[in-house]
Write a structure and sequence with these properties.
With 374 residues, the protein is α/β, with parallel strands linked by helices. Helix content is 37%, strand content 17%. The chain has two domains: 80-108 and 205-371, 3-Layer(aba) Sandwich (Rossmann fold), CATH 3.40.50.1100; 109-203, Rossmann fold, CATH 3.40.50.1100. Strands 4-5-13-10-11-12 form a six-stranded mixed β-sheet, with helices on both faces. A four-stranded parallel β-sheet has the order 8-7-6-9, sandwiched between helices. The longest helix is centred in the middle third of the chain and has 15 residues, at 233-247. It is globular and about 55 Å long.
Length: 374
């Protein structure tokens, strides 16, 4: 509707969206640009308030999908729950949890899947492939089943059996390979060359995930938004969503973005701490936080830019502290999340001196606890 082009985050090159692209010729990640002046003339607070609180509430900010190919399972519209216990323990007055674990397949990935599967159908895809550490594969298997689209999921070793079971129940074909996510991604690219439609943390998925930013902006005037970072797509998308509201006059608030990684895979965090522009891949991934174990993050540069531009920060936490935070959420708040989701809260706890007592802090919880057994 209002999308203009694919834009490279590294060199600035632009490409038409009439033809699918995944990376720039220079190797950089692609974003999608919009004509925000036209969106501004089509959207208002009154129009938004007349719609159901959910993913498609923000349709003007999403890529065009032919009406017959719109695949939705009620994604988005997730609650923002104020902490009752952990906030007191940490001395924070306004700590909130964004419950992305309550999406249809149990993770935030459903927002991106709704857009990505729709665009695949628009482009005539009959079979698709994706590399996944678990949640994306589970989500895409669900949305592909609803769309009657065949999908093959390439998974690295150590993917939780329960996530594999979720994919199998939806009828997905699964191939497990030796190595980490990067190796799985290489295999998925090989299959793309053999006629499969490639899905993953590319431009269209980020467009779906940016509705997290839209929703948070409507729910609260946050000072800080904290989330786990793997490939960096959610961080980039959320920040883009926040900025889109400002560009179109819907809201002026732009919070600080804070990304939390596992110490055994701290690519973005390392670049931030060392004040580097380039994200250096990790040779050996050593963490149980499989959902963010991305040795060479596709959107790492975008995530780093979001952190810096918003005056936020990136940090990393040990698996022990992530596990403690995960358990704390279940025991003291009644919120059951998967292991990786605990990283966001662990990042707050470990860096508590960087949070003011009265700040409005949103901690994004990305996946449901029934997804793993760690």
């Amino acid at each position: 509707m209002f999308e203009k082009s694919f834009v490279c985050g590294s060199c600035g090159s632009e490409f038409p969206t009439t033809r699918m692209r995944y990376r720039c010729d220079c190797g950089g990640s692609l974003d999608i640009s919009y004509d925000y002046s036209k969106i501004r003339g089509k959207i208002s607070r009154e129009i938004l308030d007349s719609r159901i609180f959910g993913h498609m509430r923000y349709r003007e900010f999403l890529p065009v999908i032919n009406e017959g190919n719109l695949i939705s399972m009620g994604e988005g519209g997730t609650p923002l729950l104020k902490s009752e216990s952990i906030s007191q323990q940490l001395g924070l007055e306004n700590l909130y949890f964004k419950l992305e674990n309550l999406n249809p397949s149990g993770s935030f990935k459903d927002r991106g899947s709704a857009v990505e599967v729709g665009k695949a159908l628009d482009r005539g895809a009959e079979k698709a492939v994706v590399a996944s550490t678990g949640n994306m594969g589970a989500s895409l298997s669900a949305y592909s089943a609803k769309a009657n689209l065949d999908i093959k999921i390439i998974v690295p070793e150590k993917v939780p059996e329960i996530k594999l079971e979720q994919m199998k129940r939806h009828g997905a074909e699964i191939e497990m390979i030796e190595g980490d996510y990067s190796k799985a991604e290489e295999k998925a690219w090989d299959l793309k060359e053999k006629g499969f439609y490639l899905m993953g943390d590319y431009a269209y998925r980020g467009e779906g995930e940016k509705t997290v930013g839209h929703e948070i902006t409507e729910q609260i005037k946050a000072d800080k938004v904290v989330m786990p970072v793997g490939n960096g797509t959610l961080m980039h998308g959320t920040y883009k969503g926040v900025k889109e509201f400002k560009k179109t006059g819907l809201d002026e608030n732009v919070p600080e973005m804070i990304g939390v990684q596992a110490k055994g895979c701290s690519t973005v965090s390392k670049a931030f701490k060392e004040n580097k522009e380039k994200i250096e891949p990790v040779g050996n991934v050593e963490t149980d936080a499989g959902a963010i174990a991305c040795a060479d993050p596709l959107d790492g540069k975008f995530a780093l830019e979001a952190v810096r531009e918003s005056n936020g920060f990136a940090c990393d936490v040990s698996d022990r502290k992530t596990r403690h935070a995960r358990d704390l959420l279940a025991r003291d708040e009644g919120i059951y999340v998967e292991f990786t989701s605990g990283a966001a809260l662990a990042g707050i706890i470990e860096n508590i001196e960087r949070f003011d007592k009265n700040e409005k802090i949103v901690c994004v919880l990305t996946g449901h606890g029934l997804k793993d057994k760690l």
